[in-house]
Structure to design on (407 residues):
């Protein structure tokens, strides 16, 4: 083999090595008991995996998983929004509205909070036209959280009785 | 070190490894993405009502004594700072109400011991995978704080509430003011299920933290809806 051919072959090898891998069509992490987190990633180079990817996301949403999709990044880190739907034709998550950065949300008053803090002045702006769902490609990093069971609450009647009680 | 090599090194020291691997394989075969919770005989498992492994709750559960109709009914239970214990509001069959202090501890030691009990079911491999995911979601300083102290803080740009996320403890919600700050409550939530009278969930500790963080960032309303809220002074809040 001539020197030129060897060089060309080496160049081709190098080009193949540095070619970026095909883009994943789905980059989803599902929190799981047995895996810690289970990475579900399908490659766009393999058309057979497309159907599986569609099925996985549709299944998860049907089973009540909350899928948090990374819709952008700022200096504080990734910005997540919950996917409310999925379009299997275009492989896109549907998330409602833009990332909201406003002070209108106030956490619900728990039995413990005594002070709700200063009252915010009423907004002078109208609500405007309701925004439709925006679309985020399924290749964005996302985390799926299963349905949650709350947590242990000893204040629920009927649970703590095991320890017995006495009259005051 | 590869995941397989890590597993081979660790599993001989872990009595629950075989059970955990078996349940993982079974869940994979059945197409369960979140896996199967592991029951322990010393702790009662509480599973989300619609999850398919709900029946596992019965393993290790003690039979509840039958309550006679003549006995007073408990209408409410709350933590009393004055008495240093939980107080039950009871109703007599005749309609008379009275308060009864409940026997129990005024600290979280029982929960700590139960959490230690539950830690047998988690694997280092799972926790390692969860830590890797958490590392991609946090800034360097937050992740360092988490590794060193098990705690990190993040404020919500939507509500202005600051959250202190803690490993194996409920998340603390704090409302900052110009003159100081106030603890709103502590928030407890576990994906799939948890072990009763402990701070342990079915998933490994960092998975619980990821669930809290992801829900807070993605849908704060849902995060508050899904969490049990404990008073700041209640020992079950872990403060």
């Amino acid at each position: 083999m001539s020197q030129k051919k060897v060089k060309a072959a080496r160049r081709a090898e190098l080009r193949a090595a540095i070619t970026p891998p095909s883009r994943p069509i789905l980059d989803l992490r599902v929190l799981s008991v047995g895996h810690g987190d289970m990475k579900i990633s399908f490659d766009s180079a393999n058309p057979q995996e497309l159907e599986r990817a569609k099925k996985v996301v549709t299944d998860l949403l049907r089973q009540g998983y909350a899928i948090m999709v990374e819709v952008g990044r700022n200096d504080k880190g990734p910005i997540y929004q919950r996917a409310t739907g999925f379009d299997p034709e275009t492989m896109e998550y549907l998330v409602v509205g833009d990332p909201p950065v406003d002070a209108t949300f106030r956490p619900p008053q728990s039995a413990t909070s005594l002070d709700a803090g200063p009252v915010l002045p009423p907004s002078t702006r109208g609500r405007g036209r309701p925004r439709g769902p925006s679309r985020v490609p399924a290749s964005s990093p996302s985390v799926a959280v299963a349905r949650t069971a709350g947590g242990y609450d000893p204040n629920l009647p009927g649970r703590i009785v095991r320890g017995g009680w006495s009259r005051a | 070190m590869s995941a397989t090599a890590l597993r081979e090194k660790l599993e001989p020291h872990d009595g629950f490894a075989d059970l955990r691997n078996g349940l993982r394989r079974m869940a994979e075969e059945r197409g369960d993405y979140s896996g199967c919770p592991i029951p322990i005989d010393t702790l009662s498992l509480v599973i989300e009502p619609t999850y398919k492994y709900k029946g596992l709750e019965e393993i290790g559960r003690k039979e509840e004594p039958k309550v006679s109709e003549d006995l007073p009914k408990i209408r409410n239970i709350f933590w009393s700072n004055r008495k240093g214990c939980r107080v039950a509001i009871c109703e007599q069959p005749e309609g008379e109400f009275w308060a009864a202090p409940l026997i129990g501890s005024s600290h979280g030691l029982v929960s700590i011991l139960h959490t230690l009990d539950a830690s047998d079911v988690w694997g280092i491999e799972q926790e390692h995978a969860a830590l890797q995911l958490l590392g991609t979601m946090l800034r360097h300083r937050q992740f360092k704080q988490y590794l060193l102290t098990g705690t990190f803080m993040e404020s919500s740009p939507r509500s202005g509430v600051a959250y202190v996320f803690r490993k194996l403890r409920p998340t603390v919600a704090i409302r900052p003011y110009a003159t100081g700050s106030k603890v709103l409550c502590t928030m407890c939530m576990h994906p799939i299920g948890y072990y009763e009278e402990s701070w342990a969930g079915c998933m490994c500790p960092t998975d619980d933290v990821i669930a809290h963080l992801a829900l807070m960032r993605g849908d704060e309303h849902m995060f508050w809806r899904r969490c049990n809220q404990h008073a700041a002074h209640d020992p079950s809040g872990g403060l």
User: Anything to note?
Assistant: Chain A has a mean pLDDT of 71. Chain A touches chain B through 69 residues (CB under 8 Å). The radius of gyration of chain A is 25 Å. Strands of chain A lie at 24-32, 36-43, 66-74, 77-87, 92-96, 133-137, 141-145.
